[in-house]
Design a protein that fits this description.
There is one protein chain. The protein has 519 residues and is an alpha/beta fold. 39% of the residues lie in helices and 11% in strands. The protein has 19 helices and twelve strands. The strands form two sheets. The protein has an eight-stranded parallel β-sheet with strand order 9-6-3-2-1-12-11-10. A four-stranded antiparallel β-sheet has the order 5-4-7-8, with no helix packed on it. Helix 1 links the parallel strand 1 and strand 2. Helix 12 packs across helix 13.
Length: 519
């Protein structure tokens, strides 16, 4: 991919009167902001339907879309909702998401929209809907039945259902499909609307030279349609459906007991025997909705930490070899060139680097990790390769402002000295400028860092179960000309605008720096 820069922002963070960001007018205004500031990359988090803890990384399906991102505004424009129904929106918070309130409100709206759609959709629209259901049937049939069964079994995971349903006996599945026909249609309708609205937004972005970077979590949630419908792909107890081998990472500098994630690890022997069919389908489906894929926990494709059932920490796990080279070779044979970014953070072995480089996948650099040791720190910009991405931080980091002011006074002085801290614009712009000037082909920034926000705007704190994923910005953020001008200035001057060549010395007057940069 060409040298450029962009913003990391999940759609749930858009402003909206309906309690959570969606694919409506605020999403299009954000795209306009990206274009005005000469950004050409927009990175999002996984967009699956969230379950426990509202985490995008624990979805009920890796193929389905999160229906909470559907815009009521766009449904009203299509005639599936009335303005009077939108006017009844609760007084939702502006700066964060009240997930329980949003779920209750939007479910009511979407059921009204679904009923109208079923009654009033023209034959042409009905045909489009039917074609969508056929095209996506490989996952949609199982997902819509799974969600209907989830609604009928509140507070139960699929492995707690009655044995015949848990084990997917054909007669039982047919019985439930008939019994839950209306609920199944509802979830098909939601997925159809999600994909229609997202495809329109993606087209709008792509037409403006904006590439969308998606995110594939390596593991899937145990309580998901993916595991229920494909238990043979995972290490499960055949009788109970419970996890037999759990995913995690071993003890390290950050945790004496490691991290026990609880997701089932893959039965790679079966997947390999089946020519990685499920993975091919997963990547193919993903590339229908995004342009580039960030592969989370990339090191797990070389070897993964497996913890036996019953363990309460990750201490007693072991490393198991994974067939990453065979998997990515198969994906390339089936799908062609793989637009993949490798999340290669943490303790990375030479074998993981070799796998990454074997397929020429760019890796990640985090500037917030660069200053806590000496000049050999691999996250210092002079260590970077061109084929890499530099971030100030990711969704798992504190904001740059929050991170900086939580450092010791001595370390703050060291960082200022290293960056040539200007003092005029805030530490976030100094880090952004430093990243922009690096040799890394891509420079990506959480939107919170562009806005200079503190810790209260953090998206996620790993290891905590509550208070995450709920940050939202206000409309005026993308209407600030000073922020747009400053971002465009750094993008242009460091040669990251794909539409404009780097400025020459004699054209200084054409590239006006922000006022606070004029000394």
């Amino acid at each position: 991919m060409p040298r450029g820069s962009g913003i990391l922002l999940h759609p749930s963070s858009f402003p909206s009167p309906y309690g959570i960001g969606d694919f409506g007018s605020s999403a299009y205004r954000f795209i306009d902001f990206l274009m005005s500031s000469h950004q050409h990359y927009w990175q999002i988090l996984p967009m699956g339907p969230t379950g426990y803890g509202n985490s995008p990384y624990l979805a009920y399906s890796v193929f389905a879309g999160n229906h909470l991102l559907i815009s009521p505004e766009l449904l009203e424009e299509q005639g599936w909702l009335d303005k009077s129904e939108l006017a009844n929106s609760p007084d939702f918070p502006l700066d964060h998401i009240d997930f329980d309130g949003v779920i209750a409100f939007k479910d009511g709206l979407f059921r009204l929209a679904c009923a109208r759609f079923r009654q009033q959709a023209t034959p042409a629209i009905q045909k489009q809907f039917e074609q969508f259901c056929i095209h996506q049937s490989s996952w949609l049939d199982d997902y819509s039945l799974f969600m209907a069964c989830k609604n009928a079994h509140p507070n139960q995971s699929w492995y707690q259902w009655e044995p015949n349903l848990r084990q997917r006996k054909p007669g039982t599945l047919a019985l439930y499909r008939n019994q839950f026909a209306d609920a199944i249609f509802y979830h098909q309708f939601l997925q159809y609307q999600f994909h229609c609205q997202w495809n329109a937004l993606k087209t709008y972005a792509n037409d403006r030279s904006i590439t969308i970077i998606g995110d594939i979590p390596i593991y899937v949630a145990h309580d998901s349609a993916d595991v229920w419908a494909n238990p043979e792909n995972f290490h499960l107890d055949e009788k109970t459906g419970e996890v037999a081998l759990m995913a995690g990472v071993p003890p390290d500098y950050f945790s004496e007991t490691g991290q026990l994630w609880g997701n089932p690890v893959y039965n790679w022997r079966h997947l390999k025997k089946n020519q990685f069919k499920w993975w091919v389908q997963r990547f193919k489906s993903m590339l229908e909705v995004v342009d580039v894929i960030r592969v989370d926990h990339f090191r797990g494709f070389e070897s993964y930490w497996a913890v036996p059932k019953g363990e309460t920490t990750a201490i007693n796990g072991k490393w198991v070899q994974a067939p990453g080279e065979e998997l990515f070779t198969t994906l390339a044979q089936e799908l062609g060139s793989l637009p993949i970014m490798a999340e290669d953070l943490g303790v990375i072995t030479p074998e993981v680097e070799a796998l990454r480089d074997r397929f020429d996948f760019p890796g990640m650099n985090i500037l917030q990790f660069a200053f806590d040791s000496d000049a050999r720190n691999p996250y210092l910009t002079f260590q970077y390769r061109k084929n890499s991405i530099v971030y100030t931080g990711t969704h798992d980091n504190d904001t740059t402002v929050g991170w900086f002011y939580s450092r010791s006074d001595d370390l703050q002085r060291h960082i200022r000295s290293y960056l040539g801290y200007s003092g005029f614009d805030g530490i976030h712009w100094d880090l952004i400028r430093h990243a922009m000037s690096s040799v890394a082909n891509w420079a990506l920034f959480p939107f919170q860092d562009i806005l200079g926000l503190g810790t209260d705007a953090r998206m996620n704190t790993p290891g905590t179960a509550t208070g995450n994923w709920d940050w939202r910005y206000r409309t005026e953020a993308v209407e600030c000309e000073e922020i747009c001008h400053r971002l465009r200035y750094f993008t242009d001057i460091y040669g990251r605008s794909l539409d404009f060549p780097p400025p020459r010395i004699e054209t200084d007057e054409e590239i006006e720096p922000p006022e606070s940069l004029v000394f």
